[in-house]
Design a protein that fits this description.
Chain lengths: 306, 360
């Protein structure tokens, strides 16, 4: 075993990359849950985004269009969930599971002609001057645009929830939908929009896996990232900045176990690859002591009876 | 304009009608999907739903109905207990894998001994393995209020890695020339879960599935614990006043569903699958969720739903062979079924009324 082969600057840089998919999906799901909707279909939306983005990038040759298409695909799939839960008043847990099963099937059907292809690489956004700083330059300032978009999105969601009217209304709907309805807010419309925002974010996160992290298409390639994103929201106690922290934590664990594999630690690979899932469980256990932060109307069905 | 009005009581007739409606809608939507893939929709639907039962080669595919339906029914029965109480075990796939590993491990430990008690021991340890795997989310939920959905699902991924580790390491066939995978149970008479009646597909797992259906029916309709489960799901407040012990319900529901899934895994590995291998699991644990809902969480309903879902598996394989329909199309088809089912459920609990638009 040779631990000296692990370069800390590259390790931290790849941490940011590894954290981005679950960060994007997590911050989207946070908005959905703050609006009082529990969408368990994140995995399905991510994998759909992954294949939509991959297809669009291969066809058009532009990763930017790919990401755009991925967000559209994720949002479109989440609209199905919105139809089921907001208009057909179906159980949110069951509908989310259905969305995941459906998304997994849909993606492998769409992707069967795309296995083994290599997408054009997403350009690195080497920020001039800053990226030349030794160490910090490699860690922070030489990534692609989506890494920065993820962080910017966290800031935007935080500011919107905390300081704007839209955020206040969204939170009101999530905390007490009957009161929000009585005040004249369109509960269903707000929730549908929130669900679609979550879908778009999950789609982006999925496309980041298929276009940047891996980059190729294989069936079921998100491998539970969507579920880890869901755990991330609980871990973050529904607070945006903590989602970023959690994503970095999970990204770090993932990168570390990959590096330990490469360094040839005496633990079999299968046990090392278990670690992100086991640590997710441990973190969930630690965080679940504090339930007070969960939106009060989370997962409850809203039906305006007149 | 249409308006929804909540029914004072869920409609009985619609409760029976919605699964049929959902199947019909899935056939129509599936037909459109197959058309988009350039296949004749009527031929595809016929190949999936009719040919495996009554087609030219039906005598080969009919036994498969029980082989594939058995594990689905067995797992779904367990899941339905929890779903009724609002306890969401969606990690049946993991419990199925761990059950298979534990049961097969016990069987392989006895190799090449011949004794009558080996197979029952395997079944027992398979059930125990699945039970133990499900106890992890159960105990965490009871002790720390941890979300059982996420924990049970995370454990599926852990179980998949464990399966890979086992088929490459501990359980690898010593005479297998280094190939991954355990000894094949087909070569080990005592531990092999063969057909009970030749050419029917009926093996011990299918028998156990039928027994589970009967037990679940009795439990839910005639037993206090079954009543507590239903009460917890349908009226949590009433359950509290009736001093239903939530810890007991959680442990029982998750434990039972884990044990049944583990048993299903053992019957599969010692019978139709034959050996522990890296890709031994085939998603039964997830499909069983659809089965449970399609059967309206009712034991008898699940029996029919399991057979229907097995039919789509067999028909799907047939359509793959004869029409070149991609395997993923069938997966999508099954996912659609759950969608339509959930949507159609609206009719059970609500009445759609026509109203004239009034001035506000």
């Amino acid at each position: 075993m040779d631990l000296s082969a692990i370069n800390p600057a590259l390790l931290l840089a790849s941490l940011l990359v590894a954290a981005t998919p679950i960060l994007l999906a997590g911050i989207g799901e946070l908005v959905v849950e703050r609006a009082g909707v529990l969408n368990l279909g994140v995995e399905g939306m991510m994998i759909t985004g992954a294949i939509c983005g991959f297809m669009a990038t291969i066809v058009t040759g532009s990763p930017a269009l790919g990401f755009l298409f991925a967000a559209t695909g994720g949002a479109a799939l989440s609209f199905l969930f919105a139809l089921l839960t907001q208009y057909a008043l179906a159980n949110q847990v069951a509908s989310g599971l259905a969305l995941t099963l459906f998304g997994l099937g849909l993606s492998s059907l769409l992707g069967q002609d795309y296995v083994g292809l290599k997408p054009p690489s997403t350009p690195q956004l080497d920020i001039p001057l800053l990226s030349d700083i030794p160490f910090l330059g490699t860690v922070l300032f030489s990534h692609d645009a989506i890494v920065y978009l993820g962080i910017a999105l966290v800031a935007a969601v935080w500011a919107t929830l905390k300081y704007t009217r839209v955020g206040l209304v969204l939170r009101a709907v999530g905390e007490n939908h009957d009161a929000a309805h009585a005040l004249g807010y369109k509960v269903v419309r707000i929730r549908v929009l929130a669900i679609m925002f979550g879908g778009a974010c999950a789609g982006l996160g999925g496309a980041y896996i298929s276009l940047v992290r891996v980059p190729q298409w294989t069936e079921g390639m998100t491998a539970g990232a969507g579920w880890i994103a869901l755990a991330l929201v609980v871990f973050a106690s529904w607070k945006p900045w903590r989602v970023l922290l959690g994503a970095w934590l999970f990204g770090g664990i993932n990168v570390l176990q990959l590096n330990l594999q490469a360094a040839g630690v005496a633990i079999p690979v299968e046990y090392l690859t278990m670690s992100p899932y086991i640590i997710t469980i441990l973190v969930l256990v630690i965080m679940s002591a504090d339930k007070s932060r969960a939106p009060a109307s989370l997962g409850r069905i809203f039906h305006a009876s007149s | 304009m249409f308006k929804l009005e909540k029914r004072p009581q869920a409609s009985q007739s619609f409760a029976y009608l919605t699964p049929l409606l959902a199947i019909l809608a899935t056939m129509v939507a599936g037909g459109l999907l197959f058309m988009a893939l350039g296949k004749n929709p009527f031929e595809a639907i016929r190949t999936i739903f009719w040919d495996p039962l009554f087609g030219e080669f039906a005598s080969f595919s009919r036994p498969d109905l029980l082989v594939k339906g058995g594990p689905l029914i067995l797992i779904a029965i367990g899941l339905s207990l929890g779903f009724r109480a609002g306890i969401w075990n969606i990690g049946a796939e993991g419990q199925y894998i761990v059950g298979a590993i534990c049961g097969a491990g016990v069987g392989l430990a006895f190799y090449p001994m011949e004794a009558w008690y080996i197979f029952p021991l395997m079944v027992l340890s398979g059930a125990l393995g699945g039970w133990a795997w499900a106890m992890i989310p159960a105990l965490l939920k009871v002790k720390f209020q941890t979300n059982e959905i996420l924990v049970s699902l995370m454990l599926v991924y852990v179980a998949e890695k464990l399966l890979a580790a086992m088929s490459l390491g501990l359980l690898r066939n010593p005479d297998g020339h280094g190939f991954p995978g355990s000894r094949n149970f087909k070569d080990y008479e005592t531990a092999f879960n063969g057909e009970l009646i030749p050419n029917t597909g009926m093996h011990w797992g299918v028998a156990m599935a039928f027994i589970a259906v009967i037990f679940a029916y009795v439990l839910l309709n005639r037993h206090m614990l079954g009543f507590s489960i239903r009460l917890t799901g349908e009226a949590p407040r009433a359950a509290k006043f009736a001093s239903v012990n939530p810890t007991r319900v959680i442990l029982f529901c998750l434990g039972t569903s884990g044990a049944l899934a583990g048993m299903a895994g053992l019957f599969e590995v010692s019978g139709p699958a034959g050996q522990i291998s890296i890709d031994f699991n085939s998603g039964y644990g997830f499909t069983a969720i659809i089965v449970a809902f399609l059967g309206r969480l009712h034991p008898v309903g699940i029996l029919f739903a399991g057979l229907l879902m097995a039919l789509t598996y067999i028909g799907g394989e047939l359509a793959q062979l004869t029409l070149g329909l991609p395997a993923a199309a069938i997966q999508l088809f099954q996912g659609m079924l759950l969608f339509f089912l959930l949507a159609a459920d609206l009719l059970t609990n609500y009445r759609i009324k026509r109203v004239k638009k009034e001035a506000v």
